[in-house]
Amino acid sequence: MKMELAGVNWMLAAATFLLCASGGSSAPMLCHFNSRALCEFEGRHFSLGESWMDDACMQCTCLHPVGVGCCETVHRPVDFPAWCEVRVDSATCKVGLVQTADPRLPCYPGGEMRDPGHGSLQPQQHLMG
C-alpha cells in the first residue's frame, strides 16, 4: 500500500509540474527535473507546490518527495546577426541583445545585416554606365 501511495504522489507531482511548466499558449521553454534535489534555495526550505526563482532565472517548484522541477522564465531571441550575443541580467531576468565586440552597444534582431566592425555583409552591386 505504501508503494502505491508513493506512485500516486509521484504521478500527481509530475502532472502538476507539467501543467505549471506548459504556460498555456506560450512558446515552450526549457525545463528539467531533478529527482535528487532538495526543496531548498539560499537556506530557505520549501513545501510541496511552493516555487522560487533561482540565480539562473529558472522558476523552480518543490515536488517533495520526488524532487524539484525548474523551467526557464526568459524568452531568448533566436534570429539575430552573428556578431551579437544574448545577455541575461540575473538580478532582473531581463534579456538583452548586445554586440559581441562591445557589449555596451545594443543589437537589433531583424535589423540591417551589417557588421559594425566589418562593414556591410550585403553584396554591393556596382552599376556600370
Question: How is this structure best described in words?
Answer:
The structure is a single chain. The protein is built from one helix and ten strands, in the order αββββββββββ. Helix content is 16%, strand content 29%. The protein has one helix spanning 2-22; strands at residues 31-34, 40-41, 44-45, 51-53, 58-62, 68-72, 84-89, 94-99, 114-115, 119-120. 11% of the residues are buried. Strand 4 and strand 5 (58-62) form a beta hairpin. The strands form four sheets. Strands 1-6-5-4 form a four-stranded antiparallel sheet, with no helix packed on it. A two-stranded antiparallel sheet has the order 2-3. By secondary structure, the chain is of the alpha+beta class.
Q: How would you describe this structure in keywords?
A:
129 residues; two-stranded antiparallel ribbon; elongated; disordered C terminus; four-stranded antiparallel beta sheet; 10 strands; alpha+beta
Q: What is the helix fraction of residues, given as a range?
A: 10-25%
Rounded to an integer in angstroms, the radius of gyration calculated over CA atoms is: 22 Å
Number of helical stretches of at least 4 residues: 1
User: What is the average of the pLDDT values?
Assistant: 74
Number of strands: 10
**N/C terminus separation:** 90 Å
The proportion of residues in beta strands is 25-35%
| Residue runs with pLDDT of under 50 for 5 or more positions | 2-27, 120-129
SSE order: HEEEEEEEEEE
Helix/sheet category: alpha+beta
The dominant shape is elongated
Largest sheet report: 4 strands, antiparallel
**Biggest sheet strand line-up:** 1-6-5-4
